[in-house]
C-alpha cells in the first residue's frame, strides 16, 4: 500500500514539473520530452525542494492566518469576498475524516502567499523568473544557489508563480509583513501598546492619555477624534468597564470609612469594606503583573515570539475575565448594601451566594465569612455570656431598659429587619431565649450558675467560648451550640425557680388563699370578719382587718404553712363609693416579689383579684344561706306557739314558713351545685393540668404559657370571660337576690321569735306582775313595734298582718328568683365553653327546670 502511495506521489510530481516547464515562456516552444536532460534536472530539483525540512518562520495557526486573510480583504473594500471566504473557511475546517485535509494551515498559508505574489507581480515583481531555475544544472543548484530575481523582466504577464524559497534576507514574506505593518499603522493613529497602558490606568481609576472618564457617559470612553478601528474601540470600551466598576467599589469603601464609626455603617459594614479592600488588594497585584507585561513590545505576526510576556488587548480581555466577574459582583453588592447595615446587610449578601458558578460561590463564601464575623461574634457572646455587644444596633436581638419584673417579657425582642436570611426564625427564637435566660438569672435571680452551664454547652457542641470559633457556613455548628446552651441554661433556670424560689409552692398558696381553696381558713375568716364587713366601707379599719386575718390563719391549718408564704398574704381594700359595704370592697392580695413577679405580673394579679371577688361573693352567698338555715330551725322554734294561735294565724304562719323553706331549698340547690362546679370542675381540674404542664416545661416560656393557660381556663370556666359578661351579670343579680332573701328570712324569724317571747312571758307572769305590767304600760307609751305591750287580741292581729306581709314579700322574691334563674339557665346552652354546658347538666340533673320552663 505504501509503494502505491509513493508511486502516485512521484507521478503527480512529474506531472507538475511537466506543466510548469510547458507554461514557462523562456523554455523551448516544442513539447517537453520526459527523457530529456532538462526534464530530469527539473524533476530532481523539485524533489529536492519538496523533500527538504524548510518551514515558514511563523506559528502554524490556521485561525490566525484565516483572520489575516479576512482582515486584508476587508481593508481592501472586498467585504463580500471576506464573508464568502469566512463561509468557505468554516466548511473547510468542519470537514474531517476521509477526504479531508489534515494540514489545513499549510493550505491557507499557500493561498495567502500566492495572493501576495500576484499582487507583487502587478507592481514590480515578475513571477516568470521564479521557475526557470529548475533548468539549471547540478553545479548551479549547489548550496549557494538561489532563485534569481530579475526585476527588469520584459514579460510580466505570467501569473502562475509559486512559493519563492530562498535564504535571501530580502524574502518576499518579509516584504509582505512590512507592508502589513505599514497598513496597520496607516489605519491606527494610536498603537496597541499605548491603548493597553491606558486601559490598565483606567482599571485603576486613573485617566490615561486617550482613555478618560466621562461624567456624562458615566464611564471610560475613547475620544472619537482618535483614529482606530471600530472593533478596537469596542474592545477598549468593554475592557474599561472594569475601571468603572472599580471606581464604584473604591468610592463606596472610601465613603464608608470616612463615616465610620457612624451608626449607619456599623461593624458589619466595616467588615464588608475590609473584605472588599482585601479583594482589591488581590486586584492590585494582578494589575502590577499586567503592567510589567505591558512594557514588552507586541511582536508582529511574522516574528517568532521568544516569550509570552507581552500584553495585547486580546490577551488583556482574557486576563480580565475573572476580575470582571468579581468586580461586577462587588459592584452589585455595593449598590444593594448602600442603605443596609447589620444583619440586613449580611442577609442581602447571602442571597447572592446562591449561585451555581463555583468561582462566584467560592468568592461569596470568602466574602461572607469576613462580613458575618461580627454578627456571629454577637451570637456567641449573647448565647454563652448574655452580653449584647451591639453598639450600632446591628444585631437581630434588641434590648431596652425595663424594670426587673418586665425583663423577661419586654426587656428583649427580635428585630425582624436585622435577621439574616441564613438564620431561621425558630433558631433566632432559641438564640433570643437563651441569652434572655442568662440575663434573667443574672439580674432577677442573682445566680451565677449559668456560666458553668454555658461552658458545658460549648464543650458538648464541639466548640469553645473563645472569640472567632463560629463563622459563615457553619450553620450546623451554630445550631448545635444554641441547642446545647438553651437546653442546659433553661434547665438551670427552671431549677432555680422551683428549688430556690419555690415557684410551685407559691402557685399552690395563691390557689389556697386567693382562690379560696383552703376551706377551714375561708370559713374562719368569714365568721370573724362578717360583722365588721357589714359596716359601711368608709368606717372599716384596714389594720383591724389585718388582725382578723392573722386570727383566721392561727385558727386554721394555714398556720402550718411556710412563714414566707403567710407573710406575703395581705388585706386589700378596693376603691369604694359612699354606699358600699365592707363586703363589696374587701379582698386579699399576694405579694409576688422578684423573680416571681415575672409570672405574677400586675395584670395577672388583677385577674386573680377578679376571680377572688367572684369566689368571695359566691362564698358570701353560701355563708348567708347557711346563716339563714341556722336561724330557721323549724322543728323547735315555733312548736309551742302553733298550738295556741288562732287557726287563720296558724295557717298563715305555716304557709309563710313553708314558702321560706322551699325558696331556701331552691336557692341552696343552685348555690351548692355552682359552688361544686367552681371548686372541682374549674379550680381543681385546671390546677391538675397546670401541675402536669409545670413538670414537663422545658424553659421559662413554657412555664409562662402553662400559667397563662391555667389562669385563662379559670376565667373562662368561671363565667368571667369576655364572651360570658351577660351571663356573669345575671349571676351577680341572682347573688344579690339571695342576699335579699337572707334579710327577709332574718326578719321573718325575728318576728316569730318575738311573738314566741311575748306569749311565753304572758303565760309565765303572776297576776300581780301582770297588773304591774299593765300599769307601767298605761303610764308611758310603749314602743310602737313591740308586741309584748299589746294585748292578746292586738297581738294576734298584728301577727296575722306580719305573716301576710312576709308571705307576699317571699312570693315576690320567689317569682323574681324563678325569672332570673330561668334567664340564667337559658343562656348556658349557647355558651361556647363545654364546661359551662356541663354546669347546666348539673343544675338541671332531674330536668325539673326543663319541664317547668319550656324555653330551656
TrEMBL record:
The alphabetical list of record keywords is:
Cytoplasm, Cytoskeleton, Microtubule
Q: Which Gene3D superfamilies match?
A: Gamma-tubulin complex, C-terminal domain (1.20.120.1900)
Q: What are the residue boundaries of the Gamma tubulin complex component protein N-terminal domain, all occurrences included? A: 196-499
Please provide, alphabetically and separated by semicolons, the GO molecular function terms listed in this UniProt record. Answer: gamma-tubulin binding; microtubule minus-end binding
Q: Which Pfam families match?
A: GCP_C_terminal (PF04130), GCP_N_terminal (PF17681)
> Its GO biological process terms?
cytoplasmic microtubule organization; meiotic cell cycle; microtubule nucleation; mitotic cell cycle; spindle assembly
Q: Which residues form the Gamma tubulin complex component C-terminal domain?
A: 505-849
Family note? Belongs to the TUBGCP family.
Name listed for the protein in its UniProt record: Gamma-tubulin complex component 3
Amino acid at each position: 500500500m505504501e509503494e502505491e502511495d509513493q508511486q502516485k506521489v512521484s507521478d503527480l510530481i512529474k506531472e507538475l514539473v511537466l506543466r510548469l516547464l510547458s507554461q514557462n515562456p523562456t523554455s523551448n516552444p516544442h513539447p517537453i520530452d520526459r527523457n530529456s536532460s532538462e526534464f530530469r534536472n527539473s524533476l530532481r530539483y523539485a524533489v529536492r525542494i519538496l523533500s527538504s525540512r524548510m518551514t515558514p518562520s511563523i506559528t502554524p495557526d490556521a485561525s490566525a492566518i484565516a483572520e489575516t486573510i479576512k482582515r486584508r480583504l476587508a481593508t481592501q473594500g472586498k467585504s463580500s469576498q471576506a464573508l464568502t471566504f469566512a463561509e468557505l473557511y468554516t466548511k473547510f475546517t468542519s470537514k474531517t475524516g476521509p477526504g479531508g485535509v489534515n494540514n489545513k494551515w499549510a493550505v491557507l498559508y499557500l493561498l495567502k502567499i500566492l495572493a501576495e505574489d500576484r499582487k507583487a507581480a502587478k507592481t514590480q515583481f515578475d513571477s516568470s523568473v521564479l521557475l526557470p531555475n529548475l533548468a539549471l544544472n547540478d553545479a548551479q543548484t549547489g548550496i549557494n544557489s538561489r532563485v534569481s530575481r530579475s526585476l527588469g523582466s520584459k514579460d510580466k504577464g505570467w501569473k502562475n508563480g509559486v512559493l519563492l524559497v530562498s535564504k535571501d534576507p530580502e524574502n518576499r514574506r518579509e516584504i509582505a509583513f512590512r507592508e502589513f505593518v505599514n497598513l496597520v499603522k496607516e489605519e491606527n493613529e494610536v498603537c496597541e501598546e499605548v491603548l493597553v497602558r491606558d486601559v490598565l490606568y483606567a482599571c485603576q481609576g486613573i485617566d490615561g492619555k486617550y482613555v478618560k472618564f466621562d461624567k456624562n457617559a458615566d464611564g471610560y470612553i475613547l475620544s472619537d477624534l482618535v483614529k482606530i478601528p471600530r472593533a478596537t474601540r469596542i474592545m477598549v470600551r468593554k475592557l474599561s468597564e472594569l475601571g468603572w466598576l472599580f471606581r464604584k467599589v473604591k468610592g463606596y469603601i472610601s465613603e464608608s470609612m470616612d463615616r465610620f464609626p457612624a451608626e449607619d455603617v456599623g461593624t458589619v459594614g466595616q467588615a464588608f469594606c475590609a473584605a472588599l479592600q482585601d479583594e482589591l488588594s488581590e486586584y492590585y497585584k494582578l494589575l502590577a503583573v499586567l503592567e510589567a507585561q505591558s512594557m514588552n513590545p507586541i511582536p508582529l505576526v511574522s516574528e517568532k515570539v521568544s516569550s509570552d510576556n507581552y500584553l495585547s488587548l486580546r490577551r488583556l480581555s482574557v486576563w480580565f475575565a475573572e476580575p470582571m466577574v468579581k468586580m461586577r459582583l462587588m459592584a452589585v453588592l455595593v449598590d444593594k448594601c448602600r442603605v443596609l447595615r447589620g444583619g440586613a446587610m449580611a442577609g442581602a449578601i447571602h442571597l447572592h451566594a446562591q449561585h451555581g458558578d463555583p468561582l462566584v460561590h467560592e468568592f461569596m463564601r470568602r466574602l461572607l465569612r469576613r462580613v458575618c464575623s461580627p454578627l456571629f461574634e454577637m451570637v456567641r457572646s449573647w448565647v454563652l455570656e448574655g452580653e449584647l455587644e451591639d453598639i450600632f444596633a446591628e444585631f437581630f436581638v434588641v434590648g431596652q431598659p425595663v424594670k426587673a419584673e418586665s425583663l423577661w417579657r419586654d426587656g428583649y425582642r427580635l428585630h425582624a429587619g436585622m435577621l439574616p436570611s441564613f438564620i431561621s426564625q425558630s433558631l433566632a427564637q432559641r438564640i433570643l431565649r437563651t441569652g434572655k435566660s442568662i440575663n434573667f438569672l443574672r439580674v432577677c435571680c442573682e445566680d451565677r450558675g449559668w456560666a458553668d452551664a454555658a461552658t458545658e454547652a460549648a464543650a458538648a457542641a464541639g466548640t469553645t467560648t473563645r472569640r472567632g470559633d463560629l463563622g459563615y457556613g457553619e450553620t450546623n455548628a451554630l445550631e448545635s451550640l444554641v441547642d446545647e446552651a438553651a437546653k442546659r441554661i433553661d434547665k438551670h433556670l427552671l431549677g432555680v425557680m422551683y428549688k430556690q424560689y419555690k415557684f410551685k409552692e407559691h402557685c399552690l398558696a395563691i390557689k389556697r388563699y386567693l382562690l379560696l381553696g383552703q376551706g377551714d381558713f375561708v370559713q374562719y375568716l368569714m365568721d370573724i370578719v362578717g360583722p365588721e364587713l357589714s359596716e359601711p366601707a368608709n368606717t372599716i379599719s384596714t389594720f383591724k382587718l389585718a388582725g382578723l386575718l392573722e386570727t383566721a390563719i392561727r385558727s386554721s391549718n394555714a398556720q402550718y404553712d411556710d412563714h414566707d408564704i403567710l407573710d406575703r398574704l395581705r388585706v386589700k381594700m378596693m376603691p369604694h363609693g359612699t354606699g358600699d359595704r365592707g363586703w363589696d370592697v374587701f379582698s386579699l392580695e399576694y405579694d409576688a416579689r422578684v423573680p416571681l413577679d415575672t409570672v405574677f405580673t400586675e395584670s395577672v394579679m388583677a385577674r386573680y383579684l377578679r376571680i377572688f371577688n367572684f369566689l368571695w361573693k359566691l362564698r358570701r352567698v353560701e355563708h348567708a344561706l347557711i346563716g339563714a338555715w341556722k336561724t330557721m330551725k323549724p322543728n323547735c322554734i315555733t312548736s309551742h306557739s302553733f298550738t295556741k294561735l288562732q287557726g287563720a294565724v296558724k295557717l298563715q304562719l305555716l304557709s309563710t314558713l313553708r314558702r321560706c323553706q322551699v325558696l331556701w331549698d331552691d336557692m341552696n340547690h343552685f348555690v351548692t351545685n355552682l359552688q361544686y362546679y367552681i371548686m372541682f370542675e374549674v379550680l381543681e381540674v385546671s390546677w391538675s393540668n397546670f401541675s402536669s404542664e409545670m413538670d414537663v416545661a422545658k424553659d421559662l416560656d413554657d412555664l409562662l404559657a402553662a400559667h397563662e393557660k391555667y389562669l385563662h381556663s379559670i376565667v373562662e370556666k368561671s363565667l368571667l370571660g369576655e364572651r360570658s359578661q351577660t351571663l356573669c351579670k345575671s349571676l351577680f343579680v341572682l347573688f344579690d337576690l339571695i342576699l335579699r332573701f337572707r334579710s327577709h328570712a332574718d326578719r321573718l324569724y325575728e318576728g316569730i321569735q318575738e311573738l314566741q317571747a311575748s306569749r311565753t312571758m304572758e303565760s309565765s307572769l303572776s297576776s300581780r306582775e301582770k297588773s304591774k305590767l299593765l300599769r307601767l304600760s298605761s303610764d308611758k307609751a310603749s314602743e310602737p313595734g313591740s308586741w309584748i305591750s299589746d294585748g292578746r287580741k292586738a297581738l294576734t292581729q298584728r301577727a296575722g298582718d306580719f305573716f301576710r306581709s312576709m308571705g307576699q314579700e317571699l312570693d315576690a322574691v320567689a317569682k323574681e328568683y324563678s325569672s332570673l334563674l330561668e334567664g340564667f339557665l337559658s343562656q348556658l346552652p349557647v355558651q361556647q365553653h363545654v364546661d359551662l354546658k356541663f354546669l347546666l347538666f348539673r343544675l338541671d340533673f332531674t330536668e325539673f327546670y326543663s319541664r317547668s320552663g319550656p324555653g330551656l
